[in-house]
Amino acid sequence: MSTLTEWAYPLAESLLAEPLPRRWKHCLGVAERARTIALILDQDADLLEAAAVLHDIGYAPDLAKTGFHPLDGARYLRDVADADEQVVNLVAHHSCSWLEADARGLRAELDGEFPRESEHLNDALCYCDMNTTPDGTPTNPVDRINEITGRYGPDSLIGRFIRRAEPEILACTCRVLERVAAAKRQPM
User: Ranges for the HD/PDEase domain (predicted)?
Assistant: First the structure.
């Protein structure tokens, strides 16, 4: 039986590796973070890893239609790639994207087309993304938020969005780390 990750990795690579090699490295790093928290995901581990490697495909030049990568990526996954609905929804809502959608005037489209998945899955994907550098190496969410703000500028749409999202990003990270700690305390 084919897994979601066996399908997702080649798709993400075909869309990102050549035109956006740094973005591809980031996605690989985010997928690696997903594997490190598999113990709290049970049967959803494969689902989260697939969403992790695909989460930024909306940046691919051939997919970028609105300029809002979560929406562009999710639409491609739904309309072209016939992806698993949960993967599509996770990509659409990754890393507090609804707050950026607000800033872009796209919130109604995002929420109207893609329902949010469970909090634990959204938290897990946010954790993985915000604990990975643009080059795919581990980091922490404070440094990641500072890096994003520095790259785009504090007064840019992205700079303002990421600062607005910071409390929720930090809360997601805390919830995931609490689940990991609790899982590690459980006897086997």
Answer: 19-180
Is the whole model's pTM more than 0.90, yes or no? yes
Quick one: which of 13, 2, 91, 16 has its CA closest to 46?
Answer: 2
What is the signed CA dihedral for 63, 170, 42, 111, rounded to 10 degrees?
-40
Residues 6+ apart with CB under 8 A from 83: 54, 77
**What is the total count of domains within the chain?**
1
pLDDT digits over 21-70, tens only?
999 999 999 999 999 999 999 999 999 999 999 999 999 999 999 999 99
Alpha helices in the chain (DSSP H): 4-16, 21-36, 45-54, 69-79, 85-92, 97-104, 107-113, 119-130, 141-152, 157-185
